[in-house]
């Protein structure tokens, strides 16, 4: 039973967790992590019951050195049946690299901010979307699903607030291009529930609610509150990163993604099913935190560690 009653808006019975730690999380960690340790992390995550894991990124190692081992990770990974091992592919070369190692599906990304798009990938929003056309064609021919990301949906480090309609425009274009799901990312973590609600209202008027996911960073400590607001709106897919890994190299002070442990703890408390073994999840977070030589950012994980000692 979840916490639905006359006093609360209805919440979903089940939520899908998209684990982005091995890619979006680790790519912004300065401590190098070997392919062997990345594989061990991914296998611990799928053993915990996570069935969607963003496992690598096929980008230039010059720009993202942490992802230089993605080919090795995908080649040597012991894959669990029923688990999606996804790769970020910003261009055709990346897509071909992902296909060469049998990534289950791929992801592309656009920004809701013109300034962020220029600073991040050196082109306009429209140009960035045009670059994805050949990927979409190739993926369709290969029967490969493509997930779309929209960054800076609640604010930009260069422009400040972003209009919900601008987010809706980019999300709709990605959806119409063929992305089966659009993940809405608060890249710098400045969102609050009211902004989340207005943004999702605007986007869901143009893209079906069941095709949307949310991706929050916890820079200002608002991620869980924002996720709760999104759940109340009808969102059923949440991106998160084990141990709160990551950040944004293009946004000063932007801390990591919301921790998977914290999200699952909240969902468990709401009676919402995830299919995830919480104790196994905690162990996966402790494993990668040890490899990085730092404590997990997850508050729930830190509390469990304190209670163990």
From TrEMBL:
CDD domains: DRE_TIM_HMGL. Gene3D superfamilies: Aldolase class I (3.20.20.70). Signal peptide: none annotated. The keyword Amino-acid biosynthesis does not apply. One of its GO terms (molecular function) is lyase activity. Pfam families: HMGL-like. The keyword Ubl conjugation does not apply. Keywords: Lyase, Metal-binding. InterPro entries: Aldolase_TIM, HMGL, PYR_CT. Belongs to the HMG-CoA lyase family. This is Hydroxymethylglutaryl-CoA lyase. The lineage of its organism: Bacteria, Pseudomonadati, Pseudomonadota, Gammaproteobacteria, Alteromonadales.
